[in-house]
Amino acid sequence: MDADGHRRPAGAASQGVRRGDWTVYLLSAAGLFFILMGLAALALPSGQEGELLWQLGPQQALYWMDVAGFAVSLLGVALTWAGGWLWRRSLSHGKGASTSSASGSPPPAA
C-alpha cells in the first residue's frame, strides 16, 4: 500500500513517476510537439521554404526552413530523450525506496 492507503500493483511498473511530478510528461509532450513542428517545416513546399542557403545540384537545394526544421526536430528529440532519462532515473531510485522485497519478506536488518 502507498502512503494514501491505496493498494498498488507489484513490480517495476508501480514504481514510476510520483503523483504530481509532471516533468517527465511535460518533457515528452514538448519533445513530441517540437518533432512534429520540425517535420512540418521540413515538408514545406519550395515556395515557402525561405531564402536559399546552398544550391546542391540542379534539383536540390538547402533553404532556411530546412535548417530550422532540422534544428527544431533535434530539439524535440533531445527533450524526449531527457524525459526518458528522467523516467528511467525515477524507476531506478524507486526500487531502492521499497520497504519490502519481491518475495514479500521484510528487508534485512542493517
Quick rundown:
The chain has helices at residues 23-42, 64-96; strands spanning 52-55, 61-63. It is mostly helical and 110 residues long. Residues 96-101 have low confidence and may be disordered.
Index terms:
110 residues, mainly alpha, two-stranded antiparallel ribbon, 2 helices, elongated
Q: What structural class is derived from the secondary structure elements?
A: mainly alpha
Count of runs of 4 or more consecutive helical residues:
2
Q: Kindly report the spatial arrangement of strands forming the biggest sheet.
A: 1-2
Give a short account of the largest sheet.
2 strands, antiparallel
Q: Which descriptor suits the 3D outline?
A: elongated
Based on CA atoms alone, the radius of gyration comes out at 23 Å
Beta content comes to 5-15%
Q: Quick one: how many beta strands?
A: 2
- Following the backbone from N to C, one meets helices and strands in this order, namely HEEH
Helix content: 40-55%
Low-confidence stretches: 96-101
Mean pLDDT: 80
User: How far do the termini sit from each other?
Assistant: 23 Å
Give an account of the 3D structure:
- The protein is mostly helical and 110 residues long.
- Helix content is 48%, strand content 6%.
- The protein contains two helices and two strands, in the order αββα.
- The chain has helices at residues 23-42, 64-96, and strands at residues 52-55, 61-63.
- A two-stranded antiparallel ribbon has the order 1-2.
- Strand 1 (52-55) and strand 2 (61-63) form a beta hairpin.
